[in-house]
Amino acid sequence: MERELEELQSTAEEALQRLTDIRAMEEWRVEYLGKKSKLTQVSRQMGQLGAEERPLVGSLLNTVRTHLQTAFDDRQAALHRNAQQARFEAEQIDVTLPGRVVKRGAMHPITRIIEEIEDVFLGMGFQIAEGPEVETDEYNFERLNLPKDHPARDMQDTFYITDSLLLRTHTSPMQVRTMESMRPNAPVKVIVPGRVYRRDEDDATHSHAFTQIEGLVVDKGIRMSDLKGVLEQFAKAVFGPNQAVRLRPSFFPFTEPSAEVDVLCVNCGGKGCRVCKDTGWIEILGAGMVHPNVLDWAGYDSKVFSGFAFGMGPERIAMLKYGIEDIRQLYQNDLRLLGQFTRALG
């Protein structure tokens, strides 16, 4: 049995030295040191030995087991060191290589315009409000003087969710919601930026999802001249100090009187060119005096209070200010376009 133990030790040591894979070490341990290993099988034969031979074989058995366990631990540690060294070499960084330039981000032109417009109106004492994009038919139409059979509903092709729920077609529902939340307090001075949705075919000047900024002022003695003054201040702040506005009669169900608002052509300064079709003016928004019905339904007595409202599209402002001819470029996330608007991020 002594010779059998010596041969087992020699075989185990040779097999151990041939191992180069850490995962194979566990297979070796099970084969030579586990509960069902060859060494355990030898120890079970000791009961067949005589009383004098048994202590000697037992001592040798323990010596072999201890030797193999030590060899296993040393070999496993060596393989771990080799694997770690190989990983270090594979992950080594050449610090002499030139660094990779990190590209700076850019604020999207629509976001930039919205923030610029917000700053202008905040400076005039307006507050900023937000409203739901999923709106009720009541607030999107009926409380804005658009009953269910009103022909003006055809002006806005709507995404309906149910008979009474829809994706809002404008930010104007916030006129009513804001007045309801603030009544009977005055003045009401608020702008509402947000996304709106219409079933338009996407082309160079239309999109099915776009942004609007609604403006509302309600107080005693508000006049059309106040509306023009606010819009002139806005136009000069956004387009330059030499800018002017022009109001043309129009129709919106929730304002009376209503007007389309033009600014001097940003391309020719009012002289007439291809962009403004030689008129010298470009339309930028719609506005008007809040309809008495809308005031009354919101809880403000139209015989005491008056107000004005306006709605503009930041995409339209951005296209005019930055010379963008196709609205789709604002939604394609083309880095070649967005990179032109890079500015330091604070």
UniProtKB/TrEMBL annotation:
<dbReference type="GO" id="GO:0004826">
    <property type="term" value="F:phenylalanine-tRNA ligase activity"/>
</dbReference>
<dbReference type="InterPro" id="IPR002319">
    <property type="entry name" value="Phenylalanyl-tRNA_Synthase"/>
</dbReference>
<dbReference type="GO" id="GO:0000287">
    <property type="term" value="F:magnesium ion binding"/>
</dbReference>
<comment type="similarity">
    <text>Belongs to the class-II aminoacyl-tRNA synthetase family. Phe-tRNA synthetase alpha subunit type 1 subfamily.</text>
</comment>
<comment type="subunit">
    <text>Tetramer of two alpha and two beta subunits.</text>
</comment>
<dbReference type="GO" id="GO:0016740">
    <property type="term" value="F:transferase activity"/>
</dbReference>
<dbReference type="InterPro" id="IPR006195">
    <property type="entry name" value="aa-tRNA-synth_II"/>
</dbReference>
<keyword id="KW-0547">Nucleotide-binding</keyword>
<dbReference type="GO" id="GO:0140096">
    <property type="term" value="F:catalytic activity, acting on a protein"/>
</dbReference>
<dbReference type="Pfam" id="PF02912">
    <property type="entry name" value="Phe_tRNA-synt_N"/>
</dbReference>
<keyword id="KW-0067">ATP-binding</keyword>
<dbReference type="InterPro" id="IPR004529">
    <property type="entry name" value="Phe-tRNA-synth_IIc_asu"/>
</dbReference>
<dbReference type="InterPro" id="IPR010978">
    <property type="entry name" value="tRNA-bd_arm"/>
</dbReference>
<dbReference type="GO" id="GO:0005524">
    <property type="term" value="F:ATP binding"/>
</dbReference>
<protein>
    <recommendedName>
        <fullName>Phenylalanine--tRNA ligase alpha subunit</fullName>
        <ecNumber>6.1.1.20</ecNumber>
    </recommendedName>
</protein>
<dbReference type="GO" id="GO:0000049">
    <property type="term" value="F:tRNA binding"/>
</dbReference>
<keyword id="KW-0460">Magnesium</keyword>
<keyword id="KW-0963">Cytoplasm</keyword>
<dbReference type="InterPro" id="IPR045864">
    <property type="entry name" value="aa-tRNA-synth_II/BPL/LPL"/>
</dbReference>
<keyword id="KW-0479">Metal-binding</keyword>
<dbReference type="GO" id="GO:0005737">
    <property type="term" value="C:cytoplasm"/>
</dbReference>
<keyword id="KW-0030">Aminoacyl-tRNA synthetase</keyword>
<keyword id="KW-0648">Protein biosynthesis</keyword>
<feature type="domain" description="Aminoacyl-transfer RNA synthetases class-II family profile">
    <location>
        <begin position="111"/>
        <end position="320"/>
    </location>
</feature>
<dbReference type="InterPro" id="IPR004188">
    <property type="entry name" value="Phe-tRNA_ligase_II_N"/>
</dbReference>
<feature type="binding site">
    <location>
        <position position="256"/>
    </location>
    <ligand>
        <name>Mg(2+)</name>
    </ligand>
</feature>
<dbReference type="InterPro" id="IPR022911">
    <property type="entry name" value="Phe_tRNA_ligase_alpha1_bac"/>
</dbReference>
<dbReference type="Pfam" id="PF01409">
    <property type="entry name" value="tRNA-synt_2d"/>
</dbReference>
<keyword id="KW-0436">Ligase</keyword>
<dbReference type="GO" id="GO:0006432">
    <property type="term" value="P:phenylalanyl-tRNA aminoacylation"/>
</dbReference>
